[in-house]
From TrEMBL:
This is TraR/DksA family transcriptional regulator. It comes from Microbacterium terregens. The lineage of its organism: Bacteria, Bacillati, Actinomycetota, Actinomycetes, Micrococcales. Residues 81-113 form the Zinc finger DksA/TraR C4-type domain. PANTHER family: GENERAL STRESS PROTEIN 16O, RNA POLYMERASE-BINDING TRANSCRIPTION FACTOR DKSA-RELATED. Residues 31-63 are annotated as: Disordered. Keywords: Metal-binding, Zinc, Zinc-finger. InterPro entries: Znf_DskA_TraR. A zinc finger (dksA C4-type) spans 86-110.
Amino acid sequence: MRAEFEQLIADRRAELETRLAAVEERLSSIRLARSGATDDDEHDPEGSTLSTEWSRAEGQRTDVGRELADLDAASERVGAGTYGVCAACGNPIPVERLRLLPAARLCVPCASRP
Ligand SMILES: [Zn+2]
């Protein structure tokens, strides 16, 4: 079980790192395009599209970074032997859920509780 969990976490991490690299690349190409554009963002339709894209890419970078941090915490739980145990009720989290969300800390009933 433990080896499977470690594999799940490693696979997910690899996927996120690929996504992060793509987002970083997107951000640097927007940065380049912006430096070539005029300073007058508000009245330049292209400039405002770039701003929108920039915010979206930054949002994605934040999301991916957060999930990577969650995966680090999940790795620590594997090491501590508490991985796959709901942090709220202490019941085991079904492995199907962990396959979908390797960083999950809560079982489905606890996660859907408001
Ligand atoms: Zn629970």
